[in-house]
Each structure stands twice: as C-alpha cells, then as structure tokens.
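Input record, target 12 of the design panel.
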C-alpha cells in the first residue's frame, strides 16, 4: 500500500486504489489497476459502489460518492493492513523481581500461558500482573530453555525471547 502522500495531485489514482482495496474484501467490485485514467472500468466500479451504498448511480465520483468511498476504504484497511505491533520496552538494566507488580508482567504471564498450552515446556502461572513465585518459576524454566541466565526475573533479554516465541506458539508469522 502506498503512503497517502504518493497520491497527492492524483485523485483518479487514489480513487482507483481505494476501490481496489474495497474489491479485495468484496467480489462484487472489479479489481482495478490504479492507472490514473477514469475509463470504463473505473466508471463501472464507481457505479457498483454507488448502487451498494444507495447513492445515485451515475458512475461519476462527486463529493458525496468520494466521501463514502473514503469512509469504506478506511474501514477496509483495518482488514488488510497488519495491526500495529505492540512494543513493550523495559529500560536498560530494568529487571522486575519477585513481588513486583507491572503491566509487562501481565503480558509475560499471558505469553507463558500460551507457551504452556502450545509447547508444554513451562507451567502456566496465574495472570495477576504480579511476579509471584509461580511466575518466577515459569520465567526461570523459560530462561533455561532459552539459554538465558535463570534469574526468574523479567528483564529485557527475557522479554525479547518471550516476544519471539509467542508468534510461533500462536502460529503467526515471525517478523524480524
């Protein structure tokens, strides 16, 4: 998907791109090639959109049609664009120890639960947000399996390894 700025001054190409994205989720639309030419294929795609949206069916993209298409396009992007990656950053040298409560511990406990269900390699701790003894033991077991020092604490290295294992445990593609 091209950035919005790449279509500045190219409204027909932008329209065709939006209609093409809509076509990816709906077989009623024709797959357009965004060539910047408002030809018969573009007119037909606009007509189909207008019909589906209960707008006057003219094949002409007036401001009302444009706004409806832009609105539907924004909704369709949610379906085709990968979700924003959640980055949990522990400060350099930060280590969450036994008894501490931290939002990152909730996430670590969820990941440990998924790893437990998928690989049966660690025990699943309760999801409390507190680094309690069962969480410490699960982290230590995970650290041992990952070749990390077995501290039972949640630090940057442990978090990195948890985050790398989670997509594999949930059958998601791993992004480098």
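The sequence produced for target 12 reads:
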């Amino acid at each position: 998907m091209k950035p919005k700025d790449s279509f500045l001054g190219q409204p027909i190409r932008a329209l065709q791109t939006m209609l093409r994205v809509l076509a990816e989720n709906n077989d009623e639309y024709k797959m357009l090639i965004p060539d910047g030419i408002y030809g018969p294929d573009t007119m037909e795609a606009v007509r189909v959109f207008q019909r589906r949206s209960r707008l006057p069916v003219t094949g002409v993209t007036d401001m009302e049609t444009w706004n409806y298409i832009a609105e539907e396009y924004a909704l369709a992007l949610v379906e085709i664009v990968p979700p924003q990656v959640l980055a949990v950053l522990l400060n350099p040298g930060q280590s969450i120890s036994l008894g501490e409560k931290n939002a990152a511990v909730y996430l670590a406990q969820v990941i440990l639960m998924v790893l437990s269900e998928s690989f049966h390699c660690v025990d699943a701790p309760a999801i409390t947000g507190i680094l309690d003894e069962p969480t410490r033991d699960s982290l230590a077991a995970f650290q041992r399996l990952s070749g990390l020092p077995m501290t039972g604490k949640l630090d940057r290295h442990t978090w990195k390894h948890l985050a790398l294992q989670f997509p594999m445990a949930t059958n998601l593609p791993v992004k480098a």
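The helical segments are 11-24, 40-52, 63-80, 103-119, 133-145, 156-169.
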